[in-house]
Design a protein that fits this description.
alpha/beta, Rossmann fold, 4 helices, ATP binding, metal ion binding, metal-binding, cytoplasm
Length: 150
C-alpha cells in the first residue's frame, strides 16, 4: 500500500486530480472518495468524467444514488455512486455494484456506508478542508494502483 498527500490550492486543482485519474482508470477499478460535505468529492468525479469524454457537467448522484455513464458519452461505462443516504452495508446488495465491475469502473462517494470490507483493492482518496479554504488530498493506493497512481 502506497500513501501520499497533496495540497490542492483551488477548485481547478481538484478538477485536475480527476482529469489525471481519467488517464489511468480502467473498467473493474474502484475509486472511493471520502471527506466532509463540500470538500470536493464530486469535483474530482466531474474532472474524471470530463477526462473520459463527458460533455457538460455531471450531476451529483446524491438523490439518484447511482448515476451511470455509458459510451459514447464516456470511453467506457462508469457508475458514479453516492452512498450518503444509505443506512448501512445491508442496503448495498440492492444497488448491484459488484456485478457492474465486470465492465464498468466505480466512483464511490461516502464509501464508509458500504462497510469496512468493501472494495479492498480500491484507490482510496480522502479530502480535507484546510483552514485557508484549500483542500488536502490524501490517498491509499493498493498494489493494483501503485504503478498508476502516485
Amino acid at each position: 500500500m502506497t500513501r501520499g498527500d497533496v495540497h490542492l490550492a483551488d477548485p481547478a486543482a481538484t478538477l485536475a486530480v480527476g482529469a489525471r485519474l481519467a488517464e489511468v482508470i480502467r473498467p473493474g477499478d474502484v475509486i472511493t472518495l471520502s471527506g466532509p460535505l463540500g470538500a470536493g468529492k464530486t469535483s474530482i468525479a466531474r474532472g474524471l468524467l470530463a477526462g473520459l469524454g463527458l460533455a457538460g457537467e455531471a450531476p451529483s448522484p446524491s438523490f439518484a444514488i447511482v448515476q451511470p455513464y455509458d459510451p459514447p458519452e464516456v470511453r467506457f461505462p462508469v457508475l458514479h455512486v453516492d452512498l450518503y443516504r444509505l443506512d448501512g452495508p445491508d442496503e448495498m446488495l440492492e444497488l448491484g455494484l459488484d456485478e457492474a465491475l465486470f465492465d464498468a469502473a466505480l466512483l464511490v462517494e461516502w464509501p464508509d456506508r458500504a462497510g469496512p470490507d468493501a472494495w479492498p483493492d480500491a484507490l482510496r482518496l480522502t479530502l480535507a478542508i484546510e483552514p485557508d479554504g484549500a483542500r488536502r488530498l490524501t490517498w491509499d493506493a493498493p498494489a493494483a494502483w501503485e504503478r498508476r497512481w502516485s
